[in-house]
Amino acid sequence: MDYQKSYVLMWVGIIAGFILAAVGGALAIKWLAAMGALILLAGILQTFLFFRCPHCGKLWDTRGGVPHYCPECGEYIW
Predict the structure, then answer these.
(1) pTM of the shown model
(2) Higher confidence at residue 49 or residue 78?
(3) Quick one: pLDDT at residue 1?
(4) Rg, C-alpha atoms of the chain
(5) How many CB atoms sit inside 10 A of residue 12's CB?
(6) Helix axis angle, 30-50 to 3-26, nearest 10°
(7) Best exposed site among 1, 20, 34, 36 by fewest CB in 10 Å?
(8) Is 46 among the domain residues?
C-alpha cells in the first residue's frame, strides 16, 4: 500500500469507527460499539505501518497531511 492510500484509509477508519462506536454506545449495542472501536484502531495501526516515505522509509507526521517533500531525507514526494 502506498502512502496516499494509507492516509485516506486512516481518515475513513477513524470517521467510520467513531460513528459506529458512538451509535453502538448510544443504542447500547455492545457488538456495534466494539466493531467501531476495532475499525478505528485498525485505521490508526495501518497508518503506522504504511504512511512512510517511499525513499527513506521514515514515518511521517499525520497532522500535516501528505507532504510534498520528505521532512527526513528531503526527497520530492509528488
Answers:
(1) 0.82
(2) 49
(3) 83
(4) 15
(5) 12
(6) 160
(7) 1
(8) yes
CA atoms within 13 A on the CB side of 5: 6
* Residue 20 resides in a domain: yes
Q: Is residue 17 part of a domain?
A: yes
Name the domain count of the chain: 1
Give the range of the structural domain holding residue 52, as residue numbers without chain letter: 3-64
Asked, for residue 49, whether it belongs to a domain, the answer is yes
pLDDT band at 78 (very low <50, low <70, confident <90, very high): confident
Tell me the pLDDT tens digit for each residue of 5-58. 999 999 999 999 999 999 999 999 999 999 999 999 999 999 999 999 999 999
Backbone phi, psi, residue 2, to 5°: -95, 175
**What DSSP line would sit under 39-65, residue for residue?**
HHHHHHHHHHHH-B-TTT-PBPPGGG-
Q: Rounded CA gap, 57 and 78, in Å? A: 15
Cell numbers found for residue 44? 490508526
